[in-house]
Amino acid sequence: MSGPVTPIRVLLVDDDPLVRSALALMLGGREEITVVGEAGDGEAGVNEAARLSPDVVLMDIRMPRLDGLEATRRIQALASPPRVIVLTTFDADDQVVAALAAGADGFLLKDTPPPDLLAAVRAVADGDPMLSPSVTRTLIDRIRDDDPAADSRTTRALERLDVLTEREAEVARAVGRGLSNAEIAAELFLSVPTVKAHVSKLFEKLGTTNRVQIAICVHDAGWV
User: Fold this and answer.
1) CA distance 30 to 199
2) Apex CA 78: angle with CA 76 and CA 65, to 5°?
3) Strand positions, DSSP E, 32-159
4) What is the pTM of this model?
5) Which of 113, 111, 117, 105 is nearest to 211 (CA)?
6) 3-state SS, residue 100
7) How confident is the model at residue 136 (pLDDT cuts 50, 70, 90)?
8) Could you write out the three-class secondary structure of 152-172?
9) What residue ranges in 78-195 does DSSP mark as E strands?
10) pLDDT attached to residue 210
11) By three-state DSSP, how is residue 9 classified?
12) Mean pLDDT (the chain, rounded)
């Protein structure tokens, strides 16, 4: 028999106490999730993240003293940083880009249905970014449109991907399509831990820090 599941430790950072209460209510009743703390602004959020060592931080973007993006950057500088899901009321491309650049692992609207919020926390805690394939595609298109040297990007991407094994290349293509670890495992007939190991190897070989960067490289090369 397997032992009890260790709960995912979540920190809530939002300047609206009603939002924090609603999030705590949605998450706190779940056996697999424990809300370990709350903070009302970005600066307090950074301090609480350092003190409590949560697994996942739900971070509002617009807050006093320190906004969520800068707070996310500072949290990522901690010795063992937690995963961060940025929350916002606006689904704006520039906010998604800024959140990812700050080191966020997920991007959700505040009106996300509770089941989707719970799934996002689980996915991010498990190492999967919470970005739909459509959002990933939008980000890639925006970044490529901003770069006039598309041909050179393709050449560089192909050179970077050339170091991958055949299996790593398959996983990279799947990441480029926005699939989660579980979806990749099902498609390639692998275990989820094996997929995680391959993704970690992709980070190392491609010099990337998140899955969107892998997806951009794959799309630049024309692999998907």
Assistant:
1) 29
2) 70
3) 33-39, 56-60, 83-88, 106-109
4) 0.71
5) 105
6) helix
7) low
8) HHHHHHHHHHCCCCHHHHHHH
9) 83-88, 106-109
10) 75
11) strand
12) 85
The encoded tokens of residue 196 equal: 């995680």
How far apart are the two ends of the chain, measured CA to CA in Å? 42
**What tens digit of pLDDT does each residue of 13-64 get?**
999 999 999 999 988 778 889 999 999 999 999 999 999 999 999 999 989 8
Number of H helices, E strands in the chain: 11, 5
Range 44-51 contact pairs with CB under 8 angstroms and sequence separation of 24 or more: 44/13, 45/11, 45/13, 45/71, 45/75, 46/71, 46/74, 46/75, 48/11, 48/13, 49/11, 49/75, 49/78, 49/81, 49/82, 50/78
Query: At a CB cut-off of 8 Å and minimum separation 6, what does 160 contact?
Result: 205, 206, 207, 217
Tokens 């080191």, located at residue: 103
For position 70, what pLDDT does the model report?
93
In tens, the pLDDT along 58-88 reads: 999 989 889 999 999 999 899 889 999 988 8
User: What tokens appear for 162 in the block?
Assistant: 């050339």
- CA quadruple 82, 56, 66, 111: dihedral sign: positive
Token reading at 224: 């998907």
Q: Are strands 83-88 and 106-109 parallel, antiparallel or unpaired?
A: parallel
Exposure class string for 4-16: b at 16+ Cβ within 10 A, else e: eeeebbbbbbbbe
> pLDDT band at residue 3, thresholds of 50, 70 and 90?
low
